[in-house]
Amino acid sequence: MLLKQYYLGCLAHASYLIADEATKQAAIVDPQRDIEQYLSDASANGYTIKYVILTHFHADFLAGHIELRNHAGARIVMGSQAQAEFDVLSVTDGQVIDMGQVRLKFLETPGHTPEGISVVVYDLEKSDSKPEAVLTGDTLFIGDVGRPDLLASIGVTADELAEMLYKSVNRLRELPDETLVYPAHGAGSLCGKGLSKETFSTIGEQKKFNYALQPMGLDEFKKLVTSDQPAAPEYFVYDAIKNRQERADLESTMQKSMTALSVSQIREMQTEGAQVIDVREAADFEGAHLVGSLNVGLKGKYATWCGTILSHDRPLIVVAEAGEEEEAIMRLGRIGFDNVVGYLQGGMAALNGHPELVNKIERVTAPALHELLREAQPPAVVDVRAEKEWLGGHIEGSINIPLPQLANRLDEVPAESPVVVHCEGGYRSAIACSILAHAGRNNMSDMVGGIKAWSASKLPTTAAEACGSGCGSSCSK
């Protein structure tokens, strides 16, 4: 038996290849949408990808089940509660698929979603009663469990899902302690609140260290798994719906999206509502960018932040360094943003001779900001980190507006005085500055290196307690 994990860091997503070395039959579990790595490994080892298994309808990315069906002829397998537009092999609790000496046994483990399943993997050459591993999807993570509050499934409440999750987790808890646990996500995923950096574990280890696997009653479990969950991007619901639908595969959408556009074409599209996303690093974007463009750098949580600040139903244009256009567009495709209509031909060099179309954003160092704050008329400081980060330590007097909320809270950013924006390290603040510039603000600067640089310069911070109002600032409420 071969069981291989593929880990995609930018989405904190794990997918799997399971194969029988004798029969050469293989299954792919929870694939990403760009499937070349699975096809390459299958070809190199002589495997036939017979099945593509979705543990549930994912909300944080568009899965590659359609692509593997179209390109490898794989049969799509889902739990019996899954309602999909495409043809599926529907499996019930306890049902098995044998691929020679490799057995896949399906457990219905709802809770994160109603249709959730886990895949228990047996190597029959060793044992038909003790499993080698369990692929738990978003039901059980390393150090956490899947959140029941995404409400991706219409008509099912978080309370109902939490009760399902309680039963599912207890079922998984009964597997032998030595059973390897392989989840669909790791640290950084918004599908849970406290995922470990480890990408696999054992049932025994999770029984010791995972808070959700400790003995407790239903009410206590519900309270634990529903509290302090991070805000989920709006595109999660969109992706959960898209994963149910028959749709075009990534190859066909990429062919449409890889269209070189001139500056004049892009400017005309902008007047008609097209979005422009500049994927260069913050320093390059802030040094010079096309008026009206937004910035999300490729070297970060690119797909998640694009899904947070961009619309999936308006035309989208990419500005990138030469040769990086395809990667930028493909990674948008991973979250189902197939609305890319092209990219700026020649990159920023195309704007040479058009100074009226170029904007820039000032940058300021932490020591320089410290000096400015001591002046008679100091700038306002806007901290775009999450409220929990801000509460743990921030620049005194700063205004906390978490980045996902910024576009809807622009009126809270002072319009008449200079503004300095910062985050933890500079990635989110560049996105925030681009949102402000897009809204017509021209009085802001980006603090280079964020609060990390401020702390490294041994400059003072202060902490606060949450007031409970969600205002994200020190107040008397």
Describe the overall structure:
Strand 8 (102-108) and strand 9 (117-123) form a beta hairpin. Helix 3 (158-173) packs across helix 5 (218-226) and helix 7 (250-257) packs across helix 11. The N and C termini lie far apart (60 Å). This protein is α/β, with parallel strands linked by helices. The strands form 6 sheets. Strands 1-2-3-4-5-6 form a 6-stranded mixed sheet, with helices on one face. The protein has a 6-stranded mixed sheet with strand order 7-8-9-10-13-14. The longest helix has 16 residues, at 158-173. The model is unreliable at 467-477 (pLDDT under 50). It has 3 domains: 2-239, Ribonuclease Z/Hydroxyacylglutathione hydrolase-like (Metallo-beta-lactamase, Chain A); 250-359, Oxidized Rhodanese, domain 1 (3-Layer(aba) Sandwich), CATH 3.40.250; 362-456, 3-Layer(aba) Sandwich (Oxidized Rhodanese, domain 1).
